[in-house]
Specification:
The protein has 122 residues and is mainly beta. 0% of the residues lie in helices and 51% in strands. The relative contact order is 0.32.
Length: 122
Amino acid sequence: QVLLVESGGGLVQAGGSLRVSCTASPRTFSAMGWFRQAPGKEREFVASSNWSGGSTLFADSAKGRFTISRDNYNGMMFLQMNSLKPEDTAVYYCAAAKTAEITGVVSNYFYWGQGTQVTVSS
C-alpha cells in the first residue's frame, strides 16, 4: 500500500507558474505520474517519470511548459508548471504504478492521491 498526498495547488493568473508536489509513503521506486481532471471531463495524462527521472513522458499539452522531477530520498515527486493557461484548470492527481514502466494510461497506475485543485484565471 502506498499513500500519496498532493499539495501546492492554488489560483494563478494565465502565464504564471505553479509547482505541485506529491509525497509517497512509503517511498516507491516504481513509475509515477501526474494526471488531471477538469469538470465534466475524463481524467487525462499529464506527465510521468521513472524512479530516477532519467526517463519521462509528457502529454502534448504539457510539452515545453511542464517539468516532472522526483526526490526519491524524501519520497517526493514534483510537477513544475510554467506558462499556465486557463485550460490547465483541473484537479491534479499524483499516481504510482506497480512497475517501472512509464505510460500515460490511467489503468497502469494503481495508487492515487486525493488531488489538488489548480485554477488558472484569464
